[in-house]
UniProtKB/TrEMBL annotation:
Gene3D superfamilies: membrane protein fhac: a member of the omp85/tpsb transporter family (2.40.160.50)
Domain of life of the native organism: Bacteria
Annotated keywords: Cell outer membrane, Membrane, Signal, Transmembrane
Domain Bacterial surface antigen (D15) residue range list: 645-867
Compartmental location: Membrane
InterPro entries in the cross-refs: Bac_surfAg_D15, D15-like
Tagged with keyword 4Fe-4S: no
Protein's UniProt name: BamA/TamA family outer membrane protein
Primary localization: membrane
A Pfam family reported for this protein in Swiss-Prot or TrEMBL: Omp85
PROSITE patterns in the record: PROKAR_LIPOPROTEIN
């Protein structure tokens, strides 16, 4: 019976495939064209040598329909197949008539009439959108691009203007709009038709460019009517963006105009504008050369006036009105601080103010003051205005001017509360949670910020050891954990140091942050607490570059209870694999100091061509031998009474990201990250077992939380968080009934994809292409690679890093994702599958086993972009 069904099914499948192919070929977008119209099939730009081809392509006013990731004209055509504009127009007319009747019946009831008008407007807008742009499916696609020769002519003009702006004054552009001779269409094979076709209704536009010679600057001159301005311009000539021998470029010339305007505004010329600056280019001296003159004109009346600040007033409670009451004035460093009540100390505000009387006006100082006052988080908004001193108050010298500066700052609410309630779905468990945060501004009168936070909730987690909890040995055991925590955070708008800090440090927006937190975790296997305190110095080198120095970082980790079953599993992992997971449940004291350098030129929504670099270095446990004697003792019979242990270590990580903006809404992003952690000296440890036996060992120990891990939604996404590695080591499951023995199913050991794999060396990278799909929905395709290794010999075979093998041990995963960009929030879903698994026994190309199984494909939900 089966021998006859299989060929029949194959014939049916083939017939269906041919029928589908015939339908696809028949659904040609040419069917949407009217008589005399032609479809723009392709656009080519040829002949470019030195000019930027991407910039040239962006100037072409007509582009063919997009075909990535799906042919959008096909989507449009599919939606049009069931689009009925007459029916929509009838619905619109019926809706208007129906609401007109209801509004008439409502009579003088203004509330009801207003409600009806709003509903009518919503429905009319929906129907009108469908009439103008088609139904929802059509709007997902694109209508056919009908070739327009007038737009081609305009494109030729735009290309010529651009080439001249780049110094190609003798360029020439020719264009041809030809019918493609032969197009390869593989879908025609499914309809039993030849794969090559010629469509007279398709047009290929080819722009052939002859750039001609590029013109370079042979001489740069300037002519400044005002002698005082001329002196300042010539003094700053080394910072000019124009150099002799450079290629003529109007974009650089425009930037030079901005530089000159900023230069003069920073030196007191409040009235100076770009309109006073012009450039004259002369190409008549020598072939392919340009003599460029910079002209700075004087204003119609006299010379450019240089302004000095006469008074500086700071109103710290702008927007508040007290009738019949005048603001009190305090003077500090010649600045008048005005307020009905001085809630913020003028001393704290003075550190952020860079404007001073008797100093020249400066645009840079104005912007810096606004930025530094904004960083205080004390005000809803801050504005700085200037008033020219005129009339009898003005000086007799017409070339000099005076300005009165007023800084107006509207205070923010002193108390800000945030309450969050929600739920999580992790490890097939639903867990509610709640967070309460309170922010108190200006708590001590010096623009300090004090924050309190309390959080509590339940969260599902898989068994940390990856063991199974069912008789079928297929389902990973999950459980609800209780998590309770709190933190207090104090931020001071200055460096808290025992010596006096110079005023120049204020330019770097210095802050001191003192933080303390406590976390309590209760699971069926253990109960653990973590208390942490940090003392940080934070300062900004620029708007994009921040430093954080943490001279004090202190953590105390205590495990008050651990189950006998869990203890035996940890001991088994320690003995058989040397796993440091056991050390995570010891009592630890982790003192360290660290420093972070963070450069990020991107914005929240990642819409710029930008760079990101984060460097982190940490040293912990220094000088432990002065106050802790070895061997260290761990009594598993009473963990609460076990001594706190200190391990010395050093750690370094680096994370570099590059964001390339390809078009207005498509990006290519890549990331390279790495790190290393190592113990500085050996630790001798004595462990007392539950049966009273003692075991003393000596090894290089690192706090478990300081190890490096790979895998997860922001790492190699085809692997579960912290489960990738180490090296080519293959992790197998242990029998839950006998944890000392491997789990055997059908005569073979079973791989374990759920046990955390710590490492001492991390190397990983990602590359991702992001593109728009529809409205606020974005798409992404990506490939990730990476792994972790140990630096010292390890009981896990293949886990140690070796120069002659490590490049063969990179895990590779690929996939696609969706990003829902809601402006204030970005949600994402990434689906990643394993391509190359270095830990797989036998064939390591996991892509051969492509499926949606949990050990092959991972689904990652997250907030924000992965990197």
């Amino acid at each position: 019976m089966k021998r006859f069904e299989l060929p029949r099914l194959r014939r049916l499948a083939l017939a269906g495939l041919l029928l589908a192919g015939s339908g696809l070929v028949g659904c040609s977008p040419l069917r949407l064209l009217k008589p005399g119209q032609r479809l723009l099939s392709d656009v080519n730009i040829r002949g470019t040598d030195k000019a930027d081809p991407e910039r040239l392509a962006a100037l072409v006013q007509q582009q063919p329909n997009s075909s990535f990731p799906l042919p959008k004209v096909t989507i449009y055509q599919f939606g049009r197949s069931f689009y009925n504009p007459e029916r929509i127009a009838r619905k619109l007319a019926d809706t208007q008539a129906d609401y007109a009747r209801q509004i008439t019946e409502a009579g003088t009831d203004s509330a009801q009439v207003g409600k009806l008008l709003r509903r009518r407007e919503q429905k009319e807008r929906r129907y009108q959108l469908a009439l103008d742009k088609g139904n929802a499916v059509m709007r997902l696609g694109e209508p056919p691009v009908v070739y327009d020769s007038s737009l081609t002519a305009a494109s030729v003009q735009q290309l010529g203007v651009y080439l001249k702006s780049k110094g190609f004054f003798r360029n020439s552009i020719t264009v041809s709009d030809t019918v493609p001779t032969r197009r390869f269409t593989p879908l025609r094979l499914l309809a039993l038709q030849p794969p090559y076709s010629t469509d007279s209704q398709r047009v290929t536009v080819t722009y052939t460019i002859e750039e001609g010679p590029a013109f370079h600057y042979s001489r740069l001159d300037d002519e400044v009517a005002d002698s005082a301005v001329a002196q300042r311009v010539r003094t700053a000539r080394p910072q000019s963006l124009l150099r002799e021998g450079d290629q003529y470029d109007e974009e650089v010339i425009g930037a030079e105009r901005v530089r000159l305007e900023t230069l003069l505004k920073n030196q007191g010329y409040y009235d100076f504008r770009q309109q006073y600056i012009t450039f004259e280019a002369d190409t008549s001296f020598r072939p392919t050369t340009v003599r460029l003159r910079t002209l700075v004109d004087a204003p119609p009346r006299g010379q450019h006036r240089r302004y000095t600040l006469r008074h500086v007033d700071f109103i710290s409670d702008a927007g508040i009105v007290r009738f019949g009451q005048n603001r009190d004035t305090l003077v500090r460093d010649s600045v008048n601080y005005l307020a009905y009540r001085h809630r913020i100390s003028p001393r704290a505000l003075d550190r952020k103010l860079t404007l001073r009387p008797n100093e020249p006006y400066s645009l840079l100082k104005t912007q810096r003051t606004q930025r530094q006052l904004g960083s205080l988080d004390m005000f809803r908004f801050t504005t700085i205005t200037y008033r020219r001193v005129r009339g009898a108050e003005a000086p007799a010298d017409s070339t000099q001017g005076l300005l009165d500066a007023t800084v107006s700052a509207a205070p923010a609410k002193r108390f800000q509360e945030t309450v969050e309630f929600g739920g999580t779905y992790v490890a097939q468990e639903v867990g509610p949670f709640g967070n309460v945060r309170l922010k108190i501004r200006n708590v001590f009168g010096g623009a300090e910020i004090l924050e309190f936070g309390v959080r509590a909730g339940f969260e599902g987690q898989y068994d940390i050891t990856g063991t199974q909890g069912s008789d079928t040995q297929e389902e990973l055991r999950s459980e609800l954990t209780t998590q309770i925590g709190g933190n207090v955070n104090l931020v001071l708008p200055r460096f808290l140091v025992p010596w006096r800090v110079g005023p120049r440090l204020g330019e770097f927006n210095p802050r001191t942050r003192i933080n303390a937190s406590y976390t309590y975790v209760d699971r069926p296997d253990y109960t653990r607490t973590n208390a942490e305190a940090t003392f940080d110095y934070i300062w900004q080198r620029s708007a994009f570059h921040q430093y954080v120095l943490t001279p004090i970082d202190l953590s105390i980790i205590r495990t008050s209870n651990i189950s006998a079953r869990f203890d035996s599993i940890l001991q088994n992992l320690l003995i058989r694999q040397g796993s440091p997971l056991f050390r995570s449940f010891d009592n630890l004291l982790i003192p360290s100091l660290n420093v972070t350098s963070l450069y990020n030129s991107n914005d929240f929504n990642q819409t710029r061509d930008a760079r990101y670099l984060r460097l982190f270095a940490e040293v912990g446990g220094l000088g432990r031998g002065l106050f802790q004697q070895q061997p260290l003792l761990t009594d598993t019979r009473n963990l609460r009474q076990s001594d706190l242990k200190i391990y010395d270590f050093t750690k370094f990580t680096a994370d570099y990201r590059r964001y390339y903006k390809l078009t207005s809404d498509s990006y290519l992003v890549y990331r390279l990250a790495g790190g290393a952690v190592a113990a500085l000296s050996k630790t001798q440890l004595t462990t007392i077992g539950r049966d009273g036996s003692q075991n003393t060992s000596t090894s290089f120990l690192i706090p478990y939380d300081k190890y490096l891990f790979a895998g997860g939604s922001s790492s190699v996404r085809a692997w579960k968080p912290r489960r990738l590695g180490a090296g080519s080591f293959t992790q197998y499951k242990f029998d839950p009934n006998n944890p000392t023995q491997p789990l055997i199913v059908d005569g073979q050991r079973v791989r374990d994809f759920n046990l955390e794999q710590p490492g001492e060396l991390l190397l990983e990278g990602n590359i991702e292409y992001r593109f728009p799909l529809y409205n606020f929905i974005k798409g992404a395709v990506f490939t990730d690679f990476g792994n972790v290794w140990t630096l010292r010999p390890d009981p896990r075979p293949g886990a140690q890093f070796r120069f002659n093998k490590f490049y063969q041990q990179f895990a590779v995963g690929s996939g696609f994702g969706f990003r829902f960009d809601l402006s204030f929030l970005i949600m994402r879903l990434d689906i990643a599958t394993k391509v190359y698994d270095p830990s797989a026994p036998g064939n390591k190309w996991a892509i051969r086993n492509l499926s949606f199984r949990e050990d092959q494909t991972a689904f990652n939900l997250g907030i924000g972009y992965p990197f």
